[in-house]
Every structure is written in C-alpha cells, then in structure tokens.
Design brief:
heterodimer, A: alpha/beta, six-stranded mixed sheet, four-stranded antiparallel sheet, 13 helices, B: mainly alpha, elongated
C-alpha cells in the first residue's frame, strides 16, 4: 500500500481561488481559507407508506410514495486558518447535515467543499487524515474500554506510529485533566469526562481542522463552561474549529464568525458583534408575564413600530417570556404595559436589553432559536 | 502537519488493534464463559437422545441409518453437524452483528471518521470472533471427548485440517454478507432465524441429506455447509482419501473464494448507500 500522504496533492480549484481572495489591497497577507464550502446541497429521499384506507391499512406492505427533503440548500462559506466558525441555528436547520458532509460521512447531492485543500468527495481519506471530529459526543467512544485504551485504539486507526501515539495519548490525558482516571473504564466517567475523551480522540492526530457538533449539549453548566475554555485553548494552538450550536451564548462567546442557518440556508454570516450591530437600531424589550392571554401576542404585533414578538411559556415557572423588537421602545412601552394590564397579565420583569445573536435570528426569521 | 502516516504496516497495526479492542471488550462481559464452555455441551444433547430413542436398545434399529450415513456412530455424526451449525450460529450473532452493534453503541461513525481502510474494521473484529469461535470449538471437542467419548481428532487429521481451512473463509464470508444486510435493514433476529433455519434444514445437520425429497437435495447442493459437514464427517468417521474428497473440496474452494468476495461487495454497496442516505449513525 502506498503512502498516500506523500503522493497526494490537494486538488486545484480555480473557481475557489477566483472567488476567495487570499490577499486584500496588497497589504499584509490574510490568513488563508482552510475550509471552503461552495453550493453544498443535500437532498434526502424518503420512502413513506402511502395514505390508505379501509382493510388495506392492515397489510404490512403497501403502496409507497417517495418524498424528498432538502436539508441543506446550496450553502457557501469559508473558514480561515485558526478561526472558530460557528453554525448557529435551531434543531433541524441543517447544521449537522452540513458537518456530516464535511467529515465525509454523508455524500453531498451537489456542490463541493475542501478541507485543508482536499476535496470531500474525491479525496475523502485525505480529508479524514486532516480533521478531527466530535459528532455524537460521549457515545462516540467505547465505554467498556478505559480512557487510555480508547485513545490508543483510535491512534492506531489514525495510523499514528506507536511511539508517537503513546506519547501523544499521555500528553492529551494530562492536558485534558484525565491522567488520574486514564486507566478506569469510560463507563465510570461523568458526561463531561466522556466528552473530553471524545475531544482528545479528535485531537490525536494533531489535525489542523476540528469539527464539533453541538459539543456542550447535555452537559451540566460547569462541564459546559470547562469545555468552552478547552475549545478556546485549542484555538490558541492555531487550529481551525467549525462548531455547530443552538446556544447563542456559546456562539457569541467562542466564535470569531457565525453563520446563522435556518431551513438549510445560511441567512446571515459575520462576526457576532457585526451581526448584533446590524439590528442595533432596534430596541429589544424582554418581559416575563404571568397570566398572559396567548392571543395578546397578535395584538402586540399590531402596535406601531413593533417588528417582531416571540413568546415562550415556561411550564416550570408558569410564566410567559416575551421578546419584542421595536424601532422605539420608549414610545411603545406605555402602550405595551397598558395593553398587557388590560388583559389581566401581570408583568414580573421588564428590561430593554442589548441585542443578542438570538435577537438577530428573531429579526431574520421571526422565530426563536429554540422553537 | 498531522501525525498520521499511512503505510502497509500501519494498516496491519490498525487491523490488529481492532482485533485487540474486540477481545478486550469481549472478555469484560462475564457471560462469555457460558458461550464458550457451557453452551457447546448442551446444544447437541437433545438431538443425541432423540437419535438414541429412535435407534432402539443397543442400536438395533441403526441399520437404515448406517446405509444412508455410512456409519453407525450417530452420536459423532450429530455432534459434527451441530458443531458446524454452532460455528455458523456464533458467526451470525458475533461477526454478523459486529457493525450493527457498533452502530447501536454509537461508535460506528467514530471508526468511519478515521482514515483506516474500511476492510480492516470488518476483518479486524472478525479475527477476534474467529479466534474465540475456534477456541470454543476446541473446548467443545475436549468436552465431547470427556462426556460422550467422541474422538474428533481421529480419522484423517490432515484432511480434516484442509476442510477446516476451506470452511473458515466460507463461514466468515457468510458473516460479512450478513453484517452488511443487518446494517442495511437494522434488524438482526429475523435474518438470523432465516439464515440458520435454511442451513439447519437443508445441510443435513443431524441427518443424512439422502432422506430429503429431491427438490430439497437440489437446494442443499447449492449450500456450502452441505459439503463442509459431509466432508468433515467423512474425514473423522471414515477412512476417506484426498482423491475421494477432491470433487467436494473443489466446490468448497470455489465457495471459499466466492463468499468473502460477495460479502465485501455487499459491504461496499452498503457503505455507499449509507453515505448517500446518512443512516450510518441511525439506530
């Protein structure tokens, strides 16, 4: 078997070079793009049982119909070396499908993407050599092996020479604060520790690109905080990170740039501060209201200068949370308070806040990230 | 610059590491003792006592059996068939379900994300299953010697070894084919019952296939285990020569090449389909 690392070269891609300038205005060179995604599209074909009536419902086999679902609709973006790029969007927006295509688990229907210069469809194995991925978190490792055994196993699957592998495994265990539990079975680890082993696995080959799919989902607040610090540490090693999240605070804290994705399309892409500035002319009024008549949100939407109103009911606290975007909050506040009071609602909390990434999402889509 | 350095040696190392991982996980489940030590003894007992009852006191009614099977030693006859069936059964449950088990554990995608050759993932874990199965068969042979007085190492050991060498790729070819089908349909039980049911009925597991109706014998002639069971019985229970077995061995050699190839082609097709549909991580 040949040594593919030596003989393979990144595919030339004139189109990408033409659309992605590497230098601007002859000034200091910009960092090159290490991930480039062009017109990436994924259509799933689903075969479902046709709607039948009567006795035919009892049959195990019936007429089937074919439905298509476009999960990703021709998206474009690029990520610079050493950057943390976030794909922010609600569940089902197309984040995970995108990341699965980039890590070669899923074949795109059309479009292309390169990782470190290697094309995901034609050079899949080289792409896998140059990226680490954490997709299903704690389920991506063997619970019946110890932390060390897991890492040694995956080091062999990454073709890392044994001496380097042993050193690398010890380094990573030490660095991720797992050294003292390294020889215990993973099934005895906490969720946060399992997630750290999964990240250590992704870092084993020292890849220039890391793909993290919802890395903090299911973690307790402390573990999530620790993991975010770790992601920032990894960034300081000049590695490039693409992460998906539906936590706007996470995207805001970690990402140099954020692509907001909804229904398979990237609807905004910029730095978190630029995205927030884009709606700075809007005031964001946040309220918590008890006994709110749900029909009132329609009435609030009719108030002059109100752009969007989104509401969510908390079963635990029995309170409605409202986020209202308006051109002039001072002008509408008296109307707002009067209207809610007249319908029997009691305002528990009211604040005019700075726009967050969630507000950007609301202003673009009219719905919340966690709808 | 990554630490990845792909070469033939690194691929072999990956393959051995996959086999090692399977072994470590296998021995951390204590139920392996039942699979290896107890089950082989229990499995053929029912068939042996049925045969004993049908054979009458001191085997007076065994003449018909001898005419069809070429031996009066019905206990060894049944035990040999049941050993082969047990081996196939273990392969279907172990090697055949290996990818599905990884899928349900959530680790299949982790393996797929690595730049390792896909065949190594399949062969590596099959190696461990092969080793444990052969160990189980060896334990069975010792137990049968002690409990039923059967000497499986008698007859023509060289010929027996040759038949076994041909049977290994056939059994694991069936296992790989099965693994791909299970990954595709995400349902193992029905498939296991179907496959082993077919082999149990048509391959003369506990009876000479001469008792089957004509059409069933035609089906039996298409199944590799029919030849494997017949040849192993011949090598142990009769003084058969290599020349006499050559026609059967040629057919077995054909199956030994065809079954792994069929399994790998099906595996590649399943992998391609999974990349298109995205169902690799779904369970």
């Amino acid at each position: 078997m040949s040594d593919r690392m030596v003989i393979a070269e990144p595919l030339p891609n004139d189109t990408l070079a033409a659309t992605t300038p590497r230098h601007s205005n002859g000034s200091a060179p910009k960092r090159p793009d290490i991930v480039e995604v062009r017109e990436l599209r994924k259509v799933f074909v689903k075969r479902t049982k046709a709607d039948v009536s009567g006795w035919r419902k009892l049959l195990p086999f019936g007429t089937r119909t074919t439905e298509t679902f476009t999960a990703v609709q021709g998206i474009n973006f690029s990520i610079k070396e050493g950057e943390i790029f976030g794909l922010l969007g609600p569940n089902g927006a197309g984040k995970t499908t995108t990341i699965r295509m980039l890590c070669t688990l899923l074949q795109p229907t059309s479009g292309t993407a390169t990782i470190n210069g290697y094309e995901i469809a034609r050079q899949a194995n080289l792409v896998r050599q140059h990226l680490g991925a954490v997709l299903t978190g704690e389920r991506s490792i063997y619970w019946k092996l110890t932390g060390r055994e897991n890492l040694e196993y995956f080091a062999a699957l990454y073709h890392i020479p044994p001496l380097i592998a042993r050193r690398r495994v010890s380094e990573l265990l030490e660095r991720l604060d797992l050294a003292n539990r390294a020889d215990e079975l993973v099934e005895r680890y906490s969720s946060g520790m399992k997630q750290r082993i999964a990240i250590a696995k992704a870092l084993l080959a020292s890849p220039p690109v890391l793909l993290l799919d919802e890395p903090t989902i299911g973690l307790d607040p402390q573990s999530a905080r620790n993991l975010r610090e770790l992601i920032l540490e990894i960034k300081r090693e000049e590695r490039t990170i693409l992460l998906t999240t539906h936590y706007m605070e996470e995207a805001d804290l970690l990402c140099d740039r954020v692509g907001i994705i909804d229904q398979g399309k990237i609807i905004a892409l910029d730095t978190p501060s630029n995205l927030k500035s884009s709606i700075k002319q809007l005031d964001v009024v946040q309220m918590e209201v008890e006994n709110l008549d749900p029909a009132l949100t329609d009435a609030l939407n009719q108030l002059p200068a109100v752009r969007h109103v989104v509401s969510r009911y908390s079963d635990a606290e029995r309170v409605w949370s409202l986020a209202l975007h308006a051109d002039d909050s001072r002008g509408i506040l008296p109307h707002l308070i009067e209207l809610i009071g007249s319908r029997g609602g009691q305002i528990r909390h009211l604040a005019v806040a700075q726009p967050s990434l969630e507000d950007v999402f609301i202003s673009l889509t009219g719905k919340q990230l966690r709808d | 610059m990554t630490f990845t350095h792909r070469s033939l040696i690194s691929e072999l190392r990956a393959l051995i590491t996959i086999a090692w991982k399977e072994w470590v996980i296998f021995k951390r489940y204590p139920s392996w003792v039942i699979a290896i030590v107890i089950w082989p003894v229990l499995f053929p007992v029912g068939y042996i006592f049925t045969a004993k009852a049908l054979g009458g006191p001191a085997g007076v009614d065994l003449a018909a059996f001898r005419a069809l099977a070429g031996t009066e030693d019905y206990v060894s006859f049944i035990v040999i068939g049941s050993i082969l069936w047990m081996w196939l059964n273990m392969t279907l449950w172990d090697a055949g379900l290996q990818l599905r088990n990884e899928q349900m554990r959530g680790t299949l995608e982790s393996n797929w994300l690595c730049p390792v050759w896909r065949g190594s993932i399949l062969i590596g874990s099959s190696l461990t299953k092969l080793a444990t199965s052969l160990f189980c068969l060896a334990v069975s042979a010792v137990e049968f010697r002690l409990i039923y007085g059967i000497r499986l190492a008698s007859g023509n050991p060289a010929l027996l070894a040759l038949v076994f060498l041909l049977v290994i790729p056939i059994i694991y070819g069936i296992g790989i084919t099965f693994a791909s089908l299970v990954l595709r349909f995400k349902e193992a039980n029905a498939l296991v019952f179907l496959v082993r049911g077919v082999f149990m009925i048509f391959c003369g597991l506990t009876f000479p296939i001469e008792v089957l109706p004509g059409w069933m014998r035609s089906v039996a002639a298409c199944l590799p285990l029919t030849y494997a069971i017949r040849d192993i019985r011949a090598a142990i229970l009769t003084n058969v020569t290599l020349a006499e077995l050559m026609p059967d061995l040629t057919i077995l050699a054909g199956f030994a090449l065809a079954m792994p190839a069929l399994g790998y082609i099906l595996f590649l097709a399943t992998e391609r389909r999974s990349r298109r549909t995205g169902d690799l991580g779904q369970y």
